Structure formats: C-alpha cells, structure tokens
C-alpha cells in the first residue's frame, strides 16, 4: 500500500445507504476520510453519516437517484465548487428483485438491471472525471460479483452487467493509460446484505460474512500502486493481499 487514506482524502461512494456501500463509507471514516455518500433514501443516508462521523471521518450526504441520468450533469455542477478533487469513486449501488431464467425475464426488469449495474457506474465515472483529474492520484472501483468469471444461470441482465464491468475497467484504463488515475473491478464475494437475501433465499445469511471484510479490500485498492490494480479484475482475496 503506497497511498495514504487520511483526512485529506475525498471519496465518493454510491449505494451508501446500506450494505456494502455503507460498510465502505464507515471504513473510510475510520481512516479520517471525507466521504461523499450517494443513495436515494434520505433517512438511511443520515444513518450512514452518523456512523462515518462516529468513526472519525466527515460525510456529505447527497440524495440521488442513479437512474436519473439527466441529473448527472447537475450533480457535477453542484460538487465542482464544493470539493477540490476526488481521490476515489467507488461504485457499490446495486439492486436485484429476483433471479430467473432469461426466457422469463421481463423487458423492463432486464433494462433496469443493465442501467443500475452497467450504465450508471460508467456514466457517473464520465461525469465525475473532471474532479478525478484534479487529484494527484485517484482510483475508480467497479463492484462486480462471481459472474465476473463464472457462467451461472438465472441471473439475466444482472449477471451480464456485472461481467461487463471487468471490460469496462480495462477499457477506461486503456483510454487513460498515461494518467494518474486508475480503474479496477472487484468481486467482493457473497456477503450478508439485502441483495444476498433476495438472491439466495434458501441460504442462511449467517453462512456468509458481513460486508465489513469486503470494505477493507476496497480501501486496499484505493491505496494500491497503479501497477497492482489498473485495468484489472480482482477477487476480494487479491485485494486484501495488496
């Protein structure tokens, strides 16, 4: 780990109202970082803010619907004079109503999965790129899952989008290979979240770890050297070894 996460660090986290996103925010707070927390649920965001500040960090809550793509430009305009730069952008937002074979998935549900898991993280990265460029170094983290390299049935557009994120990180890196910001994808593994409970209804959630361990992997990627992460797709165990 060569970069230091401290009270000068500014990191945006999506899906910050619960689960993995909240765990990443709190872990950043423990390092004294300044967190920009994005999510739709205002009350849940306020809880995240309390936890981050109790941990020792600072938190700016931004109620925001990632599916409102026309609002991305307004979000940038709101932030560009409030913060000097972004040291990190961590895409944790996710949603899944059900698993089903491709032959049964409804068109609207298919599109919604592509939008929240593929379109949103890439378009938000695009919109925040001017703030990322202002940083001495910065890291963009895309959150994938075990479909990153496993062919599993019944995950329809969720699985397609999550697998595509590995290519997205590689593409962003190839287009900015000589820059001081890097792009990486992580498979954090199964963890005890609301999404896990919906996807694996037959499993006891206590059989998998909470998101706190995975959050440590995200911090290690933020602090890693460019050669260790740029354009790569990593498992959680790889990230924890950085």
Automatic annotation (TrEMBL):
<keyword id="KW-0560">Oxidoreductase</keyword>
<dbReference type="GO" id="GO:0016491">
    <property type="term" value="F:oxidoreductase activity"/>
</dbReference>
<comment type="similarity">
    <text>Belongs to the short-chain dehydrogenases/reductases (SDR) family.</text>
</comment>
<dbReference type="InterPro" id="IPR002347">
    <property type="entry name" value="SDR_fam"/>
</dbReference>
<protein>
    <submittedName>
        <fullName>Short chain dehydrogenase</fullName>
    </submittedName>
</protein>
<dbReference type="Pfam" id="PF00106">
    <property type="entry name" value="adh_short"/>
</dbReference>
<dbReference type="InterPro" id="IPR036291">
    <property type="entry name" value="NAD(P)-bd_dom_sf"/>
</dbReference>
